[in-house]
Amino acid sequence: MAPRHNSSPRRDWSEVQEREYYEHECRKFRICIIGKAGVGKTTLLSKVFGIDEHEAGVVRQEDAVRRGGGQHNIYDAIVDENRNSALVIHDSCGFETGEDNNLSLVQSFIEYRSAKPSLQEQLHCIWYCISLVDPRQLHEAERELFRFLREKEIPLVFVLTKYDAFVGEKLREAVEDMEEATADDWRNARVAAQEHIADLRGYLESTMGYGVKVQEVSKARKDERLVQKLAVETTAIVKPNLRIVWFRAQGVLAKQKRVACVEHFPQKILHSLIVSSALPLNPFRGVKLGDFFEDTFHHCLAVWNLPGQSVLFTKDYVQTMFREASQSYIRRTNLAAAVAPLGALDAPRFIKVGIQIVCDLIMIFQQLFWATPRRQKLSYGDLRRELDLYKGSGIRESIHRLVEGAVNYGSSFSVKKLVGVIRVVVDDGCKILHSEAVRSHKREEVRSFDEPPFAELPAQNA
User: Fold this and answer.
1) 168 and 278 together in one domain
2) CATH no. for residue 137?
3) Which molecular function GO terms apply here (predicted)?
4) Is the pLDDT of residue 338 over 60?
5) DSSP codes of every residue in 364-413
6) Suppose 80 and one of 7, 56, 327, 394 were both cysteines; which one would form an S-S bond, judging by CB atoms 3.0 to 4.6 Å apart?
């Protein structure tokens, strides 16, 4: 059970207790997005979180005094359990000259959230959106809000939107006909845009003074890396113990989720696997292995947070599909586990199967994560296709061989060592996946399994 507020002083907690507190106390990342209408907030929600603001539900806070607001009242929470069950959004319109009421509303909302005793109800981050193509990017009301935010120390990221359009503006300033612009013209336009952004970044960082982040973004597909950088910058500024919650919510970087899946793997689950495997004449060892699969499956569900999983993965047959893709021979292993008499002497045999399950599921969920953004929501057809691809690929066999070589009698009874094995095997599996993907593309074969973002995979050493 997770620690409560009234337990022993947090400064005396172990690292595991501290981590469990944040993982159980706060299941959703609460972010406030501030920016004028048309600044690009809807595009941001879609690209980073997979949220369609028009389809999402609104949870109204009836206990708060509310006035005014933009399209959404800032006190109301925007949620979409089907597309992203780890996220709560608060949306506010930006500020124009003389809009003191809206400034007061935003300040009151931040005060209201800051006073909440529960971590789940507090604000975890603010994205302040500024359009680069707005001729008057900052108003006096905004500068007043910045001074207010300095005192609150809520993680703050300035998101400079419409970078692609801003580069276009710089190009039009330099050439008469954009259709005749050369590669050098475009390069110079990007340099001019970056010089302006550097000046704006310097002003914002000096004004706030407590380590805010500033990141430009674009809706152009060629600038997708900028959206990924926004996720990285947000990670850097979010409080360390809340990063696991952020990893669940963001829908951009598989690497963050993959690492979180390993580093935050529940130690109690591994400890239970070790104990059940080591008991001699234990007729329930096979059952425990099945329980281990189910616990690992739910851990991956929580971390990867795939769009559509809250509906699709409630079906009983889905876990069976995952079992077949991961361990098609698990029934034989369960039977052997039930009759094995040697306890600790043959425990590594069954612990290896457990570690194979963990590594398989992390790799499968990673592939589903990559496949989902192209289809918005995971469907049964998508799921079946990706599971069949994994089951029939060489990746699964490579993963199993790596585990066979890494798990031995010396490592089988240490939770820390088993986590280390999972870390190494998953990383090596991604390197193998990278090599297979490169070879496949060189042969001009494109399958779903061979289309991961190469930048997220560690390349194998030559």
Assistant:
1) no
2) 3.40.50.300
3) GTP binding
4) no
5) HHHHHHHHGGGTSS--HHHHHHHHHHHHTSHHHHHHHHHHHHH--TTTTT
6) 56
